[in-house]
Amino acid sequence: MYKQLLNLDPVKINFSKAGMDAINFVLAFVMYGVALGIKPSMFKEVFKKPKSVILGAICQMVLLPALTFLLVIILNDRITPMVAMGMILVAACPGGNISNFMSQLSKANAELSISLTAISTSLAPLTTPANFALWGGLYVKYLNKQAAGALQPLEIPISDVMITVFILLGIPLILGLLTNKFLPKISQKLKKPMQIFSILFFLLMVVLAFGNNLQLFLQYIWYIFFIVLIHNALALSIGYGVGTAFKIPREDRRTITIETGIQNSGLGLVLLFNPKIFPPDLMNGGMLFITAWWGIWHIISGLAVSAMFNYSTKRRLARAQKVNV
To answer: CA-CA distance, 234 to 200, in Å (whole number)?
Structure first.
């Protein structure tokens, strides 16, 4: 497996700007659908009891990068330096915007999800470079000096992040809240179709991500499938475990589970494709594959976890109805 993973490094993956723009449009559309079920007063409750916000931020920005480094140590003999650095880069990224839809689908706390996504994304110019430098630096120093070329200083312009937050979160959220307030009947009618369309759009995102690279993914996917599976399962477990340990409400625990398990791997790809950060002659195909496949897999795992949470809610309500009868 190690030798096969080494074959990934010279591979170049192409993601078109048009594809990335289309994905961002889909995310904004999905965010609008999420906002249709939210009222401004709901956010007050999130920050009146900040325990869940604090725990969610710690899970995503502290525990996930730290425990990813521990996982890299455990898998060190089975993964290549570039794959390890790709795992560290993904863990350093902020939460992904699709987590907001997943939280709503899970009957979780959507307001908490939006708040955590906004916080982690806004802090990304500081936390992403810091976590990548810290844990990537420790990996290079103590585990594998061959990865030194991948340890590049990450520069994320604050203005770009603020624009991203405003376009992908702010505008759709405001439009959704306004629709819910001034056109409540239309809002109610749109909720169900928007959920169906959102799932279809997520499938479209998978097609867009695979479009220009299908042959490469089919050739190498099995070598990274289980690595990303284990890594993503770790992320989901961190959120659920911390939420359970601190006895936060069920809805908040579900939200933190999803928020920690869904990372903005799109940001990771943007950084990897930036020639000013990662030189074109750097053979970092392993990093690209891990980051790209995470972007696909967390949609699949997120929908699966959401379905499990949703099913659990329906069973609990069914039992409660039987007791009342």
So the answer is: 27
